[in-house]
Amino acid sequence: MPQPSQPSAASGSWTDQIQARFRCVLSDDLTRWFDEEIWRFAEGSGGNRFASAITPADLIDDAPSAIWPALMPCDFLPILTNTMGDWLCIRMAADNTATQVVHWYHGGGDWIPWGNSLAEAIYFDHVRHRLPGSRRDHAISAGSAVDDNDRSCQKLNQWALSRLEHRSVHELEPLRGAELADEMVRRGLSQPAVLCQLVIDALENPLLDDDAARTLNINDAEQVQRALFDNQLMDPKWIGNLVAPDVSHEQVLNQQDWDAVDRHCRRAIEIAPDLGWGWDLLGYSEERSGRLAAAIEHYRRGLDCSIFTDQTVRVRTHGFSGEGQKFAAARLMKLDYQPSDPIEKDYFQRLGIACASERRDQIREHFASLARQATPAKAHELWVRAGWDMGAEPMLAFAELLEQIAISADAAGRAAQGELARTHRNCFRDRYGI
Q1: Cystine design at 276: which of 15, 248, 310, 395 (Cβ 3.0–4.6 Å)?
Q2: Would you list the domain boundaries of the chain?
Q3: How far apart, in whole angstroms, are the C-alpha atoms of residue 174 and residue 133?
Q4: Neighbouring C-beta atoms of residue 321, cutoff 10 Å
Q5: Per its UniProt entry, which superkingdom is the organism in (predicted)?
Q6: Among 145, 127, 155, which Cα is nearest to 46's?
Q7: Where does 131-257 have alpha helices with state H?
Q8: Does an H or E element contain 416, and which?
Q9: Per-residue confidence at 9, pLDDT binned at 50, 70, 90?
Q10: Cα separation of 228 and 351, whole Å?
Q11: Which residues of 110-159 form beta strands (DSSP E)?
């Protein structure tokens, strides 16, 4: 395990100061970002979505203003923003290294890895409008439109491209669509994010328009969302109101590619088994094919993933799960699944609570109770799940959760995660006076 730097009174490079502040070991990518002051090229320009950087001086503050305590997972350290509330964050690992970069959405708190380096994440930002599935991306304001003439973003992207030159990324510049996506996955570039784009594209039906679907005189909005997610669930009477007269029902229903969904999700769960959307969609693919035993096993694995990793709106699973419920849990309940393991049974029963806030409260207590009896490493994981498996109620609970996460991280030798949890606790106190 890499040894984290210890705090020192002597000032040094930005890397030295950040490593001392967070007791972590930065990757070479991040070291260059800070020490070569590449972050100065990210000054709010429009060429990339994420083009405004937090300065290293702000980052090492006792309570950095960029951190959204309780909403943002406590192992996230934000470094780049799209100025609309979303952030690219460094994710501290259990071995005290800082390498992975994730996209955190402020609307709902979902997150997804964008790369195993900052250069990968910036490169993904640079090319994602050329990838499949970009139509169901996050909405951006007109002021954030791509500007190919913007020098700052050219410098930012050139830096990322130079850092990835060993993967011959210059060969990918002429590519777009599925060809670009397949090459990125093959070369190990931003794989979970690219696979998610491919899944979204496979579920997309170019013959069906969301705006037109909203005009249908249907009282059950979730029924419409379920039909847009799986077109085979669509009432045939709706189709005539959504497409031109010369388009057959069969044409409409053959647009989605569930074989591709299955294929991409199998790859996703190999690469990133902690992301819920891969298990959710793989489970549903098995379920709709009648393979219920396999579906149940995939859904059970999905239960172990944070609800904030399901990308529910982007992949449209929100029509099945109601307010604040896991898709995997909703499907297991629909399939009358009955757990035999006592711990899983207790958790599953709490997931079935109808009131969303009470459900979150009960889930928090479930994991907190297990954490109090666990070894340090396991206790740390359980305390984190108490806060971010479903979100925690009431908000005041995060004061104790962050303290316990820091204590258990220290006991488990996870110094960087402990220090970052304490920093989130400082932000929580500074922001809310709690």
Answers
A1: 310
A2: 14-176, 355-434
A3: 18
A4: 20
A5: Bacteria
A6: 145
A7: 151-163, 177-186, 191-203, 210-214, 221-229, 236-242, 249-253
A8: helix 415-432
A9: very low
A10: 26
A11: 111-115
Type of residue found at 416:
A
Instruction: Tell me the C-alpha distance between 83 and 141, whole Å.
Output: 10
The answer to whether 266 and 294 have CB atoms below 8 angstroms apart is: no
Determine which of 203-217, 317-331, 358-372 has the lowest per-residue pLDDT on average.
Answer: 203-217
> Is the CB of residue 280 less than 8 Å from the CB of residue 299?
yes
Give residue 157's identity as a one-letter amino acid code.
Answer: N
In sign, the C-alpha dihedral spanning 108, 109, 113, 118 is positive
Cα–Cα distance between 205 and 391 in angstroms, integer? Answer: 33
Query: CA-CA-CA-CA torsion for 405, 406, 410, 412, nearest 10 degrees?
Result: 10
Q: Residues 318, 319, 320, 323: what is their CA dihedral angle, to the nearest 10 degrees?
A: 60
Q: What is the DSSP-derived secondary structure letter of residue 139?
A: -
User: Measuring CA to CA, which residue among 302, 274, 129, 259 is closest to residue 192?
Assistant: 274
3-class secondary-structure state, position 147: coil
Give pLDDT, residue 2.
Answer: 53
367 closest CA partner among 333, 394, 337, 391:
391
DSSP for 245-256 reads: TTS-HHHHHTS-
Rounded-to-10 torsion of CA 278, 282, 287, 291 = -140
Q: How far is CA 199 from CA 262, 263, 321, in A?
A: 9, 9, 19
**What DSSP character marks residue 196?**
H
Contacts 24+ apart (CB under 8 A), 252-256: 252/205, 252/207, 252/208, 255/204, 255/205, 255/206, 255/207, 255/208, 255/231, 256/202, 256/203, 256/204, 256/205, 256/230, 256/231
The C-alpha atoms of residue 167 and residue 169 are separated, in whole angstroms, by: 5
Which of 8-17, 136-145, 277-286 has the lowest average pLDDT?
136-145
What is the CA angle 279-282-284, rounded to 5?
A: 105
Residues 44, 50, 51, CA angle at the centre, nearest 5°?
A: 25
**Total H helices, total E strands in the chain:** 22, 6
